[in-house]
Amino acid sequence: TLIKQYGLGKTTNEAMFVIEAYRTLRDRGPYPADQVIKDLEGSFGFVIYDKNAGTVFIAQGEDQRVQLFWGIAADGSVVISDNKDVIKASCAKSFAPFPPGCMFHSEGGLMSFEHPKNKLK
């Protein structure tokens, strides 16, 4: 199982699994961010802020059952939430649903799960 593959305990929940998988791959070497989600199945949407690297990693599954929104605040910062009202209040007109089946890494930009080497605009 994936939990064994990443050396995690049997009581690891889904949220901790994503965080620990990210950490494990980050610490093993320069693995691309898409390696964290290549084996995930089902509904998911998450944001990981890596304080050590100063990077952000966002992903949303294709089925959009977990929907994320993102936008640019007045001060230029990126705002991400699963609450559209929070984004709307923070970003005025500069917000949109996060694209389904995509991931964003602050070092690699926006990418599709299916074609992670092709950046999206």
TrEMBL record:
Domain DUF3700, residue spans: 1-121
Superkingdom as given in the UniProt entry: Eukaryota
InterPro entries per record: DUF3700, Ntn_hydrolases_N, TSJT1-like
Pfam families listed in its UniProt record: DUF3700
Protein name listed in UniProt: DUF3700 domain-containing protein
Native species: Opuntia streptacantha (Prickly pear cactus)
